[in-house]
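User: Just a sanity check before I run the rest of the batch. Below are the C-alpha cells for the first item. I only need the designed sequence back.
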C-alpha cells in the first residue's frame, strides 16, 4: 500500500502540543524499547537516521520477531552504526561488504531475519559490485539503503548519488559527475522488491520497512534522508518536503517497465512500492542443489535451525 501524503508534501500539524513525559510513556508502552540497545545513537541532531532506527525497531516489534532471531549487518559510514543501536545480533563489517556478509548469515541459517543497512557511498561506491549479485540471486534479506547523497562520516565529500553542481569541501567548483539512479539500477539488476520512502515521513517509513521485511526474497528499500550538517542546499528537509510525491494510485507493482518509468523522475521522487514479484530465493536454489546431489535439507529447516541456535546459546 502506498501511503497518502498531504497536498503540500509537509507533515500535518498536530492540534495539541506533545509533552516529553507523554511521549516517553507512549514509547515505553509500544514495546519498541525492547529492540533498542543501551547505546544511544551518535548522529548529529536532526539527522534523518534517528527516524530510521525507530522505524526498524517498530517494524521488528510489529512483526513480533524475537530479538535473538534478527541480525542487522552493516558496512562503514554514518548509517552503518546501526547495529550498535539495535538490540539484535549484529555485524559491523568492512566498507561496502554488508551484502556478502548478510548473504552468508542468511545462507548459514535460514531461520534468521537478516537486515543489511548501508549508505549511498557504502552501497554504490566501494560496495557497488555486490548489489547486482544479491539482487539477481534473490537472497532472502532486506537491504535498507540510507541515501543522504554525501559522505557524512568523512566530513562532506560527494557520493555516487550527489547532484550535479553540488558543492562540497572536495568539489568547491561544483560536482561534475552524473549521479547514479539506485532505483533504476535495482530494477534492472532483478531485485524482487523495490520501494522508496523518506525519513521525513516516519509513519510511511515504518510501513515500508514492515512491507520490505515481509517480502520473501531480496527487498530493497531506498530511504531518502538529509545530512543536516554537511548539506545545507540540496537534499534538505525543506527541499524534499516539496519534491516527494506518492506513486500514482494506478501504479501496478507487477509492471517492471512502469516501475522504471517512475524511477526516471529523480527530481520528484515517488514514495511507495515500485515493484514486487515472487520467485525462488537463493535458499530455494541451494536446497535444490542439495536434493540433486542426494543430500538432505532436514538440518536447514527453520525448526531445526532454531533448535540448534537454542542449544548453542545454552552453551
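Assistant: Here's the designed sequence for the first item:
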Amino acid at each position: 500500500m502506498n501511503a497518502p501524503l498531504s497536498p503540500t508534501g509537509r507533515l500535518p500539524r498536530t492540534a495539541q502540543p506533545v509533552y516529553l513525559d507523554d511521549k516517553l510513556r507512549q514509547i515505553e508502552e509500544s514495546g519498541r524499547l525492547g529492540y533498542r540497545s543501551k547505546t544511544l545513537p551518535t548522529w548529529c541532531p536532526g539527522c534523518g537516521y534517528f527516524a530510521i532506527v525507530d522505524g526498524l525497531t517498530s517494524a521488528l516489534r510489529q512483526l513480533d520477531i524475537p530479538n535473538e532471531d534478527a541480525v542487522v549487518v552493516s558496512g562503514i559510514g554514518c548509517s552503518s552504526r546501526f547495529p550498535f543501536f539495535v538490540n539484535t545480533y549484529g555485524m559491523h563489517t568492512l566498507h561496502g561488504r554488508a551484502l556478502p556478509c548478510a548473504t552468508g548469515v542468511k545462507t548459514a541459517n535460514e531461520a534468521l531475519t537478516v537486515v543489511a543497512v548501508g549508505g549511498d557511498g557504502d552501497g554504490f561506491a566501494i560496495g557497488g559490485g555486490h548489489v547486482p549479485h544479491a539482487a539477481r540471486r534473490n537472497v532472502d534479506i532486506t537491504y535498507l539503503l540510507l541515501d543522504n547523497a554525501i559522505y557524512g562520516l568523512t566530513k562532506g565529500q560527494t557520493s555516487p548519488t550527489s547532484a550535479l553542481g553540488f558543492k562540497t569541501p572536495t568539489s568547491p567548483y561544483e560536482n561534475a559527475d552524473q549521479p547514479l539512479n539506485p532505483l533504476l539500477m535495482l530494477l534492472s539488476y532483478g531485485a524482487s522488491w523495490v520501494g522508496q520512502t523518506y525519513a521525513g515521513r516516519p509513519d510511511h517509513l515504518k510501513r515500508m520497512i514492515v512491507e520490505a521485511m515481509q517480502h520473501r526474497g531480496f527487498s530493497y528499500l531506498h530511504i531518502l534522508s538529509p545530512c543536516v550538517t554537511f548539506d545545507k542546499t540540496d537534499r534538505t528537509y525543506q527541499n524534499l518536503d516539496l519534491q516527494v510525491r506518492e506513486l500514482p494510485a494506478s501504479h501496478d507493482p507487477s509492471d517492471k517497465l512502469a516501475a522504471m518509468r517512475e524511477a526516471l523522475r529523480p527530481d520528484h521522487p515517488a514514495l511507495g512500492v515500485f515493484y514486487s514479484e515472487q520467485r525462488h530465493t537463493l535458499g530455494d536454489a541451494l536446497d535444490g542443489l542439495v536434493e540433486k546431489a542426494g543430500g538432505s535439507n532436514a538440518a536447514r529447516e527453520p525448526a531445526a535451525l532454531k533448535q540448534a541456535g537454542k542449544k548453542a546459546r545454552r552453551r
